[in-house]
Amino acid sequence: MTGTGSRGWDARILTLYPAMFPGPLGQSLAGRALNEGVWSLRVVDIRDFARDKHRSVDDTPFGGGPGMVMRPDVLAAAIDATVAAAGEAAAEQPLIYFSPRGRRLDQALVHSVKDAGGATLVCGRFEGVDERLLQARPVTEVSLGDFVLSGGEIAAYALLDAVVRLLPGVMGAEESGTEESFADGLLEYPQYTRPQEWEGRSVPEVLLSGHHERIAAWRRDQAERITAERRPDLWEDYAKRKRGK
């Protein structure tokens, strides 16, 4: 088990490839916040809990079929030791296993994980984990989308990056986290910067007006238009909430 301390929001990663962390999480805003103790990272090698000299963590599936399945006894031992080492609070924090059949990761789930103060993230490999492990521990299965990855590590990067940027002090401007895609159920409005004229294209005049109410109204209109065009599923939910107000 390796770590960076126990201050701040606490991430615990269970993986067969501990060298993959912190990876991209050690760069940019997340990396700076990690160094400053805004969040902490503990990386656990699942093979450390294997029960034989070969450090086996998987076996062939009962009933036949391709591939290998991660053993419930080894993985449960890794989870239990990791949560126990993190203290009492960790037992109440999310235990997440990344799986194509899980709940889709969205901004609401990101906020929920952030507000929990920490999380234990299990990165599977092979054909997945023994179903009994998922039944015996309070596991939440989470998916990035309708596609298959080689393992859960990339999904862990995505979730942690999304969480860490919401932690106090990580982003420069306080409003950065509230005026972006999904913050209120809409995709983000278009953004513009210098130069004012570029390849025959101009910045919308309203953004140059200095009239804050008009700018806010324009941005809301643009966010609604883009959401309705590109994500009708989000637009339907947003429209229902808007009608209910």
Written overview of the protein:
This protein is of the alpha/beta class. The protein folds into two domains: 2-164, 3-Layer(aba) Sandwich (Alpha/beta knot), CATH 3.40.1280.10; 179-244, Orthogonal Bundle (Trp Operon Repressor, Chain A). Helices cover 33% and strands 18% of the residues. It has helices at 28-35, 72-86, 107-115, 131-136, 153-164, 212-230, 232-244; strands at residues 2-3, 9-15, 39-45, 58-59, 69-70, 95-104, 118-122, 139-143, 197-198, 201-202. The protein has a six-stranded mixed sheet, with helices on both faces. A two-stranded antiparallel sheet has the order 4-5. It is elongated. 25% of the residues are buried. The mean pLDDT is 93.
